What does this fold into?
Amino acid sequence: MSLKPPDDRLSSHNLILGGWIALIFFSSTDIAASWANALYAVLSTGSGLDKGVSMFVFQKAYHVFLFGVLGCLIASANGSRRNPLPRVMLWSFLIGALSEALQFAFEGRGPSVADALLNGASGSAAGWLWTRWLAVSRKAASSVAES
It folds into this structure.
């Protein structure tokens, strides 16, 4: 029996994935909320946009960004599996629900079922788009190599 050395690329990918999940959970804290509000204040100064509407869009765009990247990272960790989408969906919805539930622990934070669903849907859609893009890229690369 021989032991295979760890794949360094896979190890570094898992480290990045773990760090991103930690960032998602940190974003559920009251400290992160105050930082996000300060960032929003800086970005929206002088924009002339309705504060309520633009804050809502800013918050939802942040959810889509966080979980879109998560979906791509999970899909990229596919290894030899042909269809990563079920795993992407499971982890996106699970981490999305947990990050919303974590907000119960922080005063001033309000967990939302709609946000948990947005999180899961964002991760799932991004993971699906990422796998489609990779498949098209690989197909194009193989057709060029055969020419």
